[in-house]
Amino acid sequence: MARKQRFRCPHCGHFFQVSEFSIALRPHLGGRGVYLRCPDCHTANWMLPAPPLFP
Ligand SMILES: [Zn+2]
After folding, report:
1. Is 0.70 surpassed by the pTM of this model?
2. Distance between the two ends of the chain, CA-based, in angstroms?
3. 4 C-alpha to center of ligand 1: Å?
4. Spacing, Cα 42 to ligand 1 middle (Å)
5. Residue 52 φ/ψ region, left for φ over 0, alpha for ψ in the -120 to 50 degree band, beta for the rest
């Protein structure tokens, strides 16, 4: 039942979701971004949280 946060890859534009538990384990950029690896293009980058699809 972990909550998820959406991110958008700045490299390929792919949207993906990461559980908040996983996000907590990743390096953070002052709360404005999280260092993640895109599951689509496998590029590691600082990802900014994206707004939900259905707010
Ligand atoms: Zn990507």
Report:
1. yes
2. 19
3. 18
4. 6
5. beta
Distance 55 CA to ligand 1 centre (A): 23
- Ligand 1 (ion): which residues have CB within 5 A? 9, 11-12, 14, 38, 40-41
Token pair of 31 as six digits? 């709360």
Q: Identify the residue with better confidence: 20 or 29.
A: 20
Show the beta-strand stretches assigned E in the chain: 4-8, 15-19, 34-37, 44-47
Burial profile 12-44: b = 16 or more Cβ within 10 angstroms, e = fewer = eeeebebeeeebeeeeeeeeebbebebeeeeee
